[in-house]
Amino acid sequence: VEFELIERIRRRVARRDDVALGIGDDAALLRVPSGMELVVATDTLNAGVHFPPETAPSDIGWKALAVNLSDLASMGATPAWFTLSLCLPAPDPEWLDAFLDGALALANEHQVSLVGGDTTRGPLSISITALGFVSVGQALRRDGANVGDDVWITGSPGDAAAALSQWRAGHDMDPALRARLDRPTPRLAAGLALRGLAHACIDVSDGLLADLGHVLYASGVGARIDVMHLPFSSALADAFPRIAQRQELQLAGGDDYELCFTAPPDRRGAILDALVACDTAATRIGQVESEPGVRVIGADGALWQGKIVGWDHFAGASR
Ligand code: ADP
Ligand code: MG
User: Going along the chain, which residue ranges are E strands?
Assistant: First the structure.
């Protein structure tokens, strides 16, 4: 049965010339271009933890790959391959086909090829390792932010968290918000465009403040964020008309997979040009400062008093 499932997967995989040996042997053989560093990211999605249990299998497939490609995007890497470790409650070919519809749609969009994996039985869990490359020394890292840098965010944060909060409250999720939760867009073109421009970069998976906090900590700096500068979607504003509640979702909510990056002010024009060229909106939301920590400035110019909650998988929601 396991063999049949693997065969079902193998039949659908797109070829790449740099895969010397793909699915079918004990390991894959991959050719990394010379002068490049291999970039490797792994993320696991567990049912009920990382997506509502009723999520469509094709959306689970999309998201499982998207969160991994997002990690490559935030490094400024070009994605090439991925492996897929599937733990399934039952060997269900229909579920697998739908899952692959979503995962391979995204893979084909970025010419990424599935080169191996593992198939086991147990509670539904999907673990993907994405592999890509970046020229030696060109990767965007967390530890490069400098005092005086602008803080930027791509897209508009908060939609995915808003959908989740509707779901947790037992409400129907707004379709536009739900689409952002189920099918996040990995900002691969933006990540590539930011090489040589951004000083530091991270993808927002745990929440804007939490993830920006990682960049600041790694860089030994702090920042101020102007909450009134946070871009928001009309779907978010319609669903959460109370401004404080909306802003809380934007600052604390995760699952957006937007890129948060820092760059010196004299590169503002170059950054906007580079991102316009790849159809990615980006907004300046604050400034890097020497004092550690994040200070959120509200509409009145005073320190923001909203409740700010970050997500920690072991501690649960914590301050
Ligand atoms: P082994 O026991 O040697 O690990 P497996 O039966 O686990 O062999 O895997 C056989 C081949 O199928 C390997 O090339 C492996 O990478 C591939 N494979 C197994 N599961 C998956 C999967 N879910 N997706 C892609 N490739 C897979
Ligand atoms: Mg195996």
Answer: 19-21, 29-30, 36-46, 78-88, 113-121, 125-135, 150-154, 200-203, 222-226, 259-263, 282-289, 293-297, 310-312, 316-318
